[in-house]
Amino acid sequence: MTIKRLDLLQPTTLDEASRLYQEHADDASYIAGGTALLIMLRERVYQPGYLIDLKTIAGLDGIRHEPGVGLRLGALASHRDVELSPVVRERLPVLAETYRQVGNVRVRHAATVGGNLAHGDFRLDPPAPLIALHASARIVGADGERTVPLEEFFLGLYTTALEPGEVLAEVIVPDPPPRTHAAYLKYTSLSAMDWPCLGVAAAATLAEDGTFADLRLVYTSVSSTPLLVQGAADLARGIQAADAAAVQRLAAELGRLAAEQVDPTPDIRGSEWYKREMTRVFAGRALRAALARGGVLSSE
Amino acid sequence: MVIESSFAVKAPPQKVWDFLIDPQQMVGCVPGCSKVERLDENTYRATMSVKVAYITFSAAMDVAITRMDPPHELESTARGEDKRLGSNVQVAATLRLTPQGDDATEVAYRADVSLWGKLGSLGEPIFRQKATQTGREFAACVQRKLETAS
Question: Is 0.90 surpassed by the pTM of this model?
Fold first, then answer.
C-alpha cells in the first residue's frame, strides 16, 4: 500500500526539530532510519500529518571515543556503521558483533542507533549489551538536555523515558573497568532472520586475582522491557573465573535466578515454559562466552 | 488468541461481584476505557482507546452480558470497529469468582480475543504482551479500590 500524503519537515538543528514538534504536537512523528515506522505508514495503521526528519541534522551520526567519557555513538549512526567501526571493534567488539546480528544488511544500513532504542520494542538486540556495559542515553528536548542510564530508559511495552518532543541524541558507553569481558548471544527458535526467542548479554569484570568483581546479565525478548538480572554480581563475587567447575556451578545458579525474574509471553517462538528454560540455559552460555572472549575460560 | 489469568482480592465475592458489574467502576479500572453507557438491561457501549507503539485503536465497543450467575460467574461478549484503522476486535470473556476463606476472592478471567484487519499486522506477540499488561493493570486497580474501600 502507498503511504498517505504527509509533509516531510527537514530541520537542520535539534532546536528546530523540537520547535517543529511543538507546532504539530499530536500530528507529528520524528523519523530517522524509518525501518519500523515505514511499515506502519505503508500499512496505514499510523497516519501522521507530518514527519520530522532527523537525518537532515548534521553531526548526530558520529562514532568516536573520548578519553574519560567513553564511546560516543551518535543517534543517527546506522547499525552498519557501528558494526564496521574500527573504534567500536577495537574497544567494545561485543557491540560490533551485536549490531551485526540485527536484521539483514539492508536494514542495518538504514536503521539507526537512536531510532532502534527509541522504538522501544522488547525484542531489540542492542539494549542487552548496552545495558550490561552501563550505557546511557543523552536526551535533548525543548527544556534542555538530560542523561538517562539505559537500564532506566525502557519503561514498558514500546514505552521509553522519552517525553513527547524529546530526541535521543547520543548513546554513551563508558570505558569498562580493566578485565571486563562481554558477549551477546541471540537465540532464534525459528529462521535466523526472525525476532529472537531470546537474546542475552553478559559482562563480567574480574579482580586482579581472577575472581569476579562484577557480573551483569541482561535479557531481551523475555519481558516487556530489556531485563537486567538482579543479584547476578552477588552470586559471582569472589568466584575464581578460571575454575571451570566453579563457573559451571555459578552458571546453574545464575540460570535459576534469571528464570525467576523474566516474564515471557508465549508465542510462535516458544511457550512460556520453553522461554524460561532457554533463559536458564543461556545464562551459562552467555557467561562462558564472555569469559572465553577474555581468554579466561577456553570455549567448549 | 486466549488470554487467561487470575488475581486475588481481599473482599468477599458479593462485594467483588457488585464492583465488577458496576459500569462506572469499570470505567475507572479498565485501561483505555473513558466512558460506558447502558443501552438496555444487559448491553453497554464502552468508549475505548488503546495505544500500542504508534498505533491507537479507538472504538465504541458494544458489550453484552450473555450469562450471569451472581456472585460466581459472568459471561460477556464485546465487539467494536475502528473504521479509520480498518480493524475489528471481538472478545468473548468469562469471569469466575471463587471464595477464598471468609473475606477474600479469587477472580479468574479468560478472554478469547479475535482481531481482524490491519491491527493483525502488529503480530500476536505484541497483542499478548499488551493484553497481559492490561490485565495486570486492571487487577491492580480492582484490588486497590476494593481493598482500600473496606
Answer: no
CATH number of the domain where residue A203 is located: 3.30.390.50
CB atoms within 10 A of CB B4: 11
Number of domains in chain A: 3
pLDDT band, residue A298 (cuts 50/70/90): low
Range of the domain at A92: 63-173
Let me know if residue A27 belongs to a domain.
Answer: yes
* Grid coordinates belonging to A217: 546479565
Hey, is the C-beta of B138 within 8 angstroms of any chain A C-beta? no
Edge-first strand order for the sheet with A70-74 is: A63-66, A70-74, A167-173, A136-141, A144-149
Question: Do A265 and B129 lie within an 8 Å CB cutoff?
Answer: yes
**pLDDT tens-place string over residues B120-136:** 766 777 888 888 889 99
Retrieve residue A251's grid coordinates. 552458571
Q: Which residues contact A191 (CB under 8 A, 6 or more apart)?
A: none
- The answer to whether residues A187 and A142 belong to one domain is no
Q: Specify the residue for cell string 482507546.
A: B49
Q: What is the pLDDT of residues A22-79, one digit of tens each?
A: 999 889 999 999 999 998 898 888 889 999 999 999 999 999 999 999 999 999 999 9
Q: Does B121 touch chain A (CB under 8 A)?
A: yes
